[in-house]
Amino acid sequence: MSLQTKYLLDENQMPKFWYNIQADLPKALPAVLHPGTLQPIGPDDLAPLFPMELIMQEVSTEREIEIPEPVRDIYRLWRPAPLYRAHRLEKALGTPAKIFYKYEGVSPAGSHKPNTAIPQAFYNKQAGVKRLTTETGAGQWGTSLSFAGSLFDLEVLVFQVRVSYDQKPYRRAVMETYGARCLPSPSNQTEYGRSVLAQRPDHPGSLGIAISEAVELAVQREDTKYALGSVLNHVLMHQTIIGLEAMEQLQMADAWPDVVVGCTGGGSNFAGIAFPFIGHALRGGKKSRIVAVEPAACPSLTRGKYAYDFGDTGHMTPLTKMHTLGSTFTPPGFHAGGLRYHGMAPLVSHCKELGLLEATAYTQGQCFEAGVTFARAEGIVPAPEANHAVKGAIEEALRCKREGKSETILFNLCGHGHFDMAAYQKYFAGELKDEQYDEKELAMALSGLPSVPEPA
């Protein structure tokens, strides 16, 4: 009898609601602060950047937020996404563990990012917005928002981190195919970009700098808003459709995860797979170990400080409490561009502080090695970001092998690596070195954190 590999839901089984973990947390998320007054910000403070519907989702504590039917209709282009049992990887590793992976690379843009790009474009269109500005690292988010913009007739301007802009020209070509404009960041199109280039003309860029440029242009025009691909509460909530679908599919497989693994940069795909399972445990259900895997060259969860910080390098955003390497920290130019962010999502950071998840970090070389092992067993070439989750899952499977335990492992394969083959070529040629961040720069960035008094 053959073993089942794919677990598929019908379109009518797609979740009708996103899950909001804020409803179940034992301790409320620390407030977002105005950088000038250090007082909690209100909806009006965010109105220049986001439509009110997204602002209300950002602060909501309702457990379920309904997914609008026009959004669900577009989701049907690729959702529900498949859940796979990695039989061949299990065999290659010789592990008694059962390995499942949720595959988000089936979306038109090739990653999990359209799960939030579509609703963000929808709510902005409803609010009469004509143009969206955003940032992107590897280009997964920029591609996804460009795709969403094309469906809702919105102009999209993307600032792509310079090192990724140079590394991944085909990602830029996809954005342009969808009708967006893509600029390298730092650029000469903004006052902040020009100030960075004046100090260092060959600056490799960072997500923090690209965010500053996108925010600067968004607030200059009434018809323009800003869209963010990770970090914010509403973004993480939109991604929970991943974990909600996985729960249904695991029941079809008569399984439940002992361990849930996700890669972390800003936190969105990790939250998407993990938050529904964390919430299930908080409500009295079976508890899973939750493991966040991040790059050793940009280790906000494992090396960062839990403190209030700016979300961008130009200090144009509100202050949020998160695990941060310091807003002025520039990560080295490793290939997982989507993980090159100085801070971790406040909700993910908060969950770590509450002991609801654990974090680990691996080098670029270790993660590419894991990605190649996975590709040769399962056939899918993962994106460099997703390789971190693959590495984390393989390590858990090898632990099960050492301990003789038949645990169930679930991880999120958040995107394919079809536009990242130059990185794989470098790996095979032995040219992909493990980038190291500058300890002095990290210390300097952390020493410059805003001074925010602890609440009485």
UniProtKB/TrEMBL annotation:
Signal sequence, renumbered to the chain: none
GO CC term, one of those recorded: cytoplasm
Family annotation (Gene3D superfamilies): 3.40.50.1100
Chain ranges of the Tryptophan synthase beta chain-like PALP domain: 77-415
SUPFAM superfamilies the record matches: Tryptophan synthase beta subunit-like PLP-dependent enzymes
Cofactor(s), names only, from the UniProt record: pyridoxal 5'-phosphate
Modified residues (N6-(pyridoxal phosphate)lysine): 113
Entries under InterPro entries matching the protein: Trp_synth_b-like (IPR006316), Trp_synth_b_CS (IPR006653), Trp_synth_beta/beta-like (IPR023026), TrpB-like_PALP (IPR001926), TrpB-like_PALP_sf (IPR036052)
Enzymatic reactions: (1S,2R)-1-C-(indol-3-yl)glycerol 3-phosphate + L-serine = D-glyceraldehyde 3-phosphate + L-tryptophan + H2O
Domain of life per record: Bacteria
EC number: 4.2.1.20
Molecular-function annotations in GO: L-serine hydro-lyase (adding indole, L-tryptophan-forming) activity; pyridoxal phosphate binding; tryptophan synthase activity
Keyword set, alphabetical order: Amino-acid biosynthesis, Aromatic amino acid biosynthesis, Lyase, Pyridoxal phosphate, Tryptophan biosynthesis
Pathway the protein acts in: Amino-acid biosynthesis; L-tryptophan biosynthesis; L-tryptophan from chorismate: step 5/5
Subunit structure: Tetramer of two alpha and two beta chains.
Role according to the record: The beta subunit is responsible for the synthesis of L-tryptophan from indole and L-serine.
HAMAP family in UniProt: Trp_synth_beta (MF_00133)
Protein family: Belongs to the TrpB family.
Entry protein name: Tryptophan synthase beta chain
